[in-house]
Amino acid sequence: MEKEFRILNIVSAKIWGGGEQYVYDVSKALGLRGCTMFTAVNKNNELMHRRFSEVSSVFTTRLHTLNGLFSLCALTRFIRENRISHLMIHTGKIAALSILLKKLTGVRLIFVKHNVVANKTDFYHRLIQKNTDRFICVSRLVYDVQTADNPFKEKYRIVHNGIDTGRFPPSQEKPDSRFFTVAYAGRISPEKGLENLIEACVILHRKYPQIRLKLAGDGHPDYMCRLKRDVSASGAEPFVSFEGFTEKLASFYRQSDVVVLPSLVPEAFGLSLCEAMYCRTAVISNTLGAQKEIIEHHQSGILLDRLTPESLADEIERLVLNPETKNALATAGHQCVANRFTINHTADKLLDAI
Fold this sequence. Notes:
Keywords: Glycosyltransferase, Transferase
Shape: elongated
InterPro entries: Glyco_trans_1, Glyco_trans_4-like_N
Order of helices and strands: EHEHEHEHEHEHEEHEHEHEHEHEHHH
Number of helices: 14
CATH superfamily of the largest domain: Glycogen Phosphorylase B
Structural class: alpha/beta
CATH class of the largest domain: Alpha Beta
CATH topology of the largest domain: Rossmann fold
CATH architecture of the largest domain: 3-Layer(aba) Sandwich
Largest sheet: 7 strands, parallel
Strand content: 15-25%
GO molecular function, one term: glycosyltransferase activity
Oligomer: single chain
Organism: Neisseria meningitidis
Distance between the termini: 13 Å
Protein name: Glycosyltransferase family 1 protein
Number of domains: 2
């Protein structure tokens, strides 16, 4: 690597999520490529400090006061003292802070776009677009939405998300043959369409009592309580389980027959699909978002144009009745992710783009 990359990620989130895992995985991969990685996190957030210390040098400051503006002087000193070459941000909440840091230090500003949100044209957002050196879009869908009628289109690049395959080492784990396990992993929230998934499993369980559903992830307590009440009211409690947050995702995926992502809104990427596919588990989703950039219908997974409880139940039933089809999808899915969606692919393309 001819050019020296000294990269500072600013992470202002309060809880660990997909965006934070992205920064972690990218930092690890870029560090292995000779980049010097730094992460700025909010003071007193012990989880963020501990996790990011594994892959970068961590700087703590007050990122939650005035959208980080209170930390302007401290971050300016840090950037200068550590000769930071690139500043990477992941939310517009700290865009004003980042622009000021760019003006004061000359650092190159990189904005990673993780959401399917239309490009805005007001003065403030035009200011962000003008002062950002490069926008990284995690999928073609995000790129298309962001660059529509955008005079700064030349600043945008597509760098697909990727998984750290080291988190999913080879294993002989398999689903329990006494059951047919349907699974979901991700945030437990209304836009994820979990009501449709639960109802689909209720429909299937009447005919196939070996069906069980496992939901891994956390969510807002009020919504979690409502969803659990709905499960109880439908009589599904014996075969629907809420697993909570799990760090043993590889085992969770491998012990599942099919992983479903039934989102009601467009997904910016679909990292959980890639994780499950790499673990040789069949996947089902819909065509609302970037899932169709990952899955080839009936080749490496199943995509539904209109995902309803009934249509989802039909597709799961086909896998129940045709284990050879399920296994073929799982094998092709693993190869697809190994060839295209690993963190090594992401890191290499990111270095070319920034």
